[in-house]
Write a structure and sequence with these properties.
Elements (H helix, E strand, L loop, with lengths): L1 H18 L1 E7 L2 H4 L2 E4 L5 E4 L1 H15 L2 E5 L5 E2 L1 E12 L4 E12 L3 E13 L6 H19 L9 E2 L3 H4 L1
Parallel strand pairs: 1-4, 1-6
Antiparallel strand pairs: 2-3, 5-9, 6-7, 7-8
Helix pairs in contact: 3-4
């Protein structure tokens, strides 16, 4: 009887431990050091930090989905590493926030798997809570990215120290 419980417990542990997929992303230091801005009208300019908002979006995405998406860290293993280059634009007359995300996807052992261009737009005025709305926009963009890079059966893990090469 104890053996049956042990087998059930161990098999559920194996299923849950391999069910999560780990991803890391690298965003250039430029996006953390410089503010982006958009003009709502002739008088109001809104500034935001793309790097910090991407980090927040990745945390929210990881909490809400079964995937682990983190900023690149040396020593951490992941299935894929994304090199991200976002270009965003807000059109206040159409109340549309656009982002084109250029992505290089790397897999173990550090080879380029593919290049992607992910496009996303949000139809919403960004007057009241622009940071919250932009984080939600980036979270949806990251969801599109994860869906576009479905993993094949790959048992190899890529070390986060690979990101030092990308700088």
């Amino acid at each position: 009887m104890k053996i049956q419980y042990f087998i059930i417990f161990f098999s559920s542990f194996i299923q849950t431990s391999f069910a999560t997929t780990n991803y890391q992303f690298f965003l250039s230091p430029y996006f953390y050091q410089n503010l982006d801005s958009f003009q709502i009208n002739g008088l109001i300019a809104v500034q935001y930090n793309t790097g910090n908002l991407f980090d927040e979006a990745a945390k929210l995405y990881s909490n809400e989905s079964g995937h682990v998406l983190k900023k690149c860290n040396a020593g951490e293993k992941s299935n894929l590493i994304y090199y991200l280059y976002p270009r965003s634009f807000y059109n206040p007359q159409m109340t549309t926030f656009y982002t084109d995300l250029e992505v290089r996807v790397f897999e173990a052992p550090g080879k380029l798997k593919k290049n992607l261009l992910i496009k996303h737009q949000t139809l919403k005025p960004l007057y009241e809570n622009p940071d919250t709305d932009i984080i939600e926009h980036y979270k949806n963009l990251l969801n599109k990215l994860i869906m576009a890079t479905k993993l094949d059966d790959n048992n190899f893990k890529l070390d986060g120290s690979f990101c030092k090469i990308l700088k």
